Amino acid sequence: MNQYKNNETKLSFFENLAIKIIKQGPIPKHIAFIMDGNRRWATNFNLNKSEGHEFGSEKLSKILKWCPKIGIKEVTVYAFSIENFKRSQDEVNAIMKLFIRKLLEKEQELHEKGIKVKVIGNLDMLPNDVQKVVADAMLSTKDNSKLNLNIAFAYSSREEITNSIKTIVEGVENNELILEDLDNVLIDECLYTNQSSPVDLLVRTSGEMRFSDFLLWQVPSTVFYFTTSLWPDFTLWHLLAAVFYYQRNYTQAKALKEHYNQTRPAITNNPRVDKFLANLEEKRCTKLVEMNRLIKS
Ligand code: FPP
């Protein structure tokens, strides 16, 4: 069990060598993880489910240490889906508590490591105490730039896309947009992931080969890597294997990225849309500040 608790960040000679070698090839800028298998892992060790999630969250801390060493700039993790609200109240409460505790515990470390945290999902579905910690974490790390960490929490892709379209419909109703402005770039810009770079590599652990309503819009040129390792068992070697798989599929992924032109334009060449998007960003920021302030008082 110690190997799972071990928070040692120093890598061995062979691990460093492997990283050096992998860095000779193309490195995914943005990697997403479906962190699956915490409960099965806990069962294997006769532990309860929340202990499985605890070890799972420790693995995420390690991922955040390994990724910058490899040259990965953005990490998105699926921590809690809207579907997960259907789990037992005890388990849901335990995950909420763990999430709050980890965000508070890691606050200092996030700053030291220059990590910018963004929680993507329907934040209104979260209890007040979780909203407060989320708003705090996002606001206090917003100027960090070494690594972007997006935590999908109360997230589902279909809800995200629906929300994006609702935002646009409201814009049309309020005469901020016209219907002709609606295109895939605008839908993209109204998603929770609007500031993210394209997802280059998506990794799912535990042997399941499903997307479970995760980033469905964002992955037209993404390389998918599935491993049978349960999330708490995921090691640097699994991560390097995933990156190596990406490198072997790089030419095809690059061609697809060019095909879908997945480079985010700084402006859309449409002043009306640019103004709408700037307002949307401001509204989202104001909402976070209010979430933080209202809950404090
Ligand atoms: C998937 O395994 C895991 C989850 C649904 C929860 C993951 C949550 C965390 C790791 C805590 C989040 C904390 C932070 C700081 C982001 P599973 O429960 O579906 O396991 P199974 O597939 O074996 O049933």
Radius of gyration: 19 Å
How many domains make up the coordinates? 1
Count of helical stretches: 12
> Shape, please?
globular
Reading side by side through the largest sheet, how are the strands ordered?
Answer: 3-4-2-1-5-6
Low-confidence stretches: none
Per CATH, the class reads: Alpha Beta
The main β sheet shows up as: 6 strands, parallel
Percent in strands:
5-15%
Q: What would CATH call the architecture?
A: 3-Layer(aba) Sandwich
CATH topology: Undecaprenyl pyrophosphate synthetase
Averaged pLDDT: 93
Instruction: Spell out the CATH superfamily.
Output: Decaprenyl diphosphate synthase-like
Q: What is the helical fraction, as a range of percent?
A: 40-55%
Oligomerization: single chain
Bound molecules: farnesyl diphosphate
- How far apart the termini lie comes to 43 Å
GO molecular function, one term: ditrans,polycis-polyprenyl diphosphate synthase [(2E,6E)-farnesyl diphosphate specific] activity
Protein name: Alkyl transferase
Family: Belongs to the UPP synthase family.
InterPro entries: UPP_synth-like, UPP_synth-like_CS, UPP_synth-like_sf
